[in-house]
Amino acid sequence: MKATRRPLTNAKVARIPASGIRRFFDLTAGVEGAISLGVGEPDFVTPERFREAAIRSIKDGKTKYTSNYGIRPLRDAISAHTAKLRGVSYDPEREIIVTVGVSEAVDLAMRATLNDGDEVILADPSYVAYVPGIVLAGGVPVAVPTREEDAFRLRPDDVAAAITPRTRAILLGFPNNPTGAVLEKEDVAGIARLAAEHDLLVYADEIYDRLVYGTEHHSIISQPEMKERTIYLAGFSKSYAMTGWRVGYACAPAEIVEQMMKIHQYTVMCVPTAAQYAALEALQSGELEVLRMVGEYDKRRQYMWRRFNDMGLHCFEPRGAFYCFPNITSTAMPDDDVFCEQLLKHERVVVVPGNAFGERGRGHVRACYAASLEQIAEACDRIERFVEHAAS
Ligand SMILES: Cc1ncc(COP(=O)(O)O)c(C=O)c1O
Fold this sequence. Notes:
With 392 residues, the protein is α/β, with parallel strands linked by helices. The chain has 2 domains: 140 residues, Aspartate Aminotransferase, domain 1 (Alpha-Beta Complex), CATH 3.90.1150.10; 222 residues, 3-Layer(aba) Sandwich (Aspartate Aminotransferase, domain 2). The chain contains 13 helices and 12 strands. Strands 2-8-7-6-5-3-4 form a 7-stranded mixed beta sheet, sandwiched between helices. A 3-stranded antiparallel beta sheet has the order 9-12-11. Helix 3 crosses helix 10, helix 5 runs parallel beside helix 6 and helix 5 crosses helix 9. The longest helix is centred in the last third of the chain and has 24 residues. It is globular and about 65 Å long. The termini are far apart.
């Protein structure tokens, strides 16, 4: 007799939907002349000096596994960088681990610290990987709404209202993907106070920390006594235009890094060696490149933000990352999914439905302005035409 067939896959994984961003990315593939404002990655090629450093490392025969924690000069440079930028010193020996992008750092942080049923508070909308990451680590996501009229800031009062005896951590992803929101100093101070009061961990995903415009990024690790309860996550993909190199890092208390390192050791061992040398060069000599790219993004941000408002799609001013998050509820489209599908079909422009980032993203779309001004201008012309036609 034949045994009953069991499901081939893990139920927890099977329940997680694939990323809503990728879906639109794949849809574009067959559309000739499409302009993509869909994927959140710099249009710049990695600066030449960083690329050269990787090539040099290969020519010098640096082709072996590195320490599981990452090459020591890179950890030293990360330590010096966070000390200079955030006023917090991490021990390169025990408190820093180099990871495969911030993606791996987020995953390691949660898997190393959560127990089954632990609640993690996060802003809604937020980066698409957070909820699946929490669920796969056995945690329970608790989404706290952020609002357009509040410039999508995460308010300490709203966080406080979501805290229960099961809350283990707060996940802060600011500057925010998808909204472009940044936190004010009082938000960060209030959230830090709550974390201390309720003995919570903070996962601080600060991958966009350098990409702020006309304002400052306030890091939670710079708050008094937050170093001991924060897992600080940062990387090279966005600020240094290095998405394909896959380098990020986590800084945290040694006790936590030790546990993160074990998972990393048994799954990926180390980040590709040449990529680590490119990242090292980025930290050592990349400051002017970062400033140059931030200047470019700022011009594009101002242009795109104005265009959306001028065409009647209300958009609050994004101050960080590289996204605009216009409200599309004034259009004739029934929802953000249909808006994106129809826009792609009729005008060949890709933007991402806001609901891919959480319930509070509904009625919005995410448009990435890490594209050339010419492309952005053409995409805005097409969107404007689409909105006008849809209304007539
Ligand atoms: C908020 C946020 N965190 C992490 C990541 C992943 O970055 P990485 O390329 O370093 O893995 C992204 C990428 O879009 C992001 O937007």
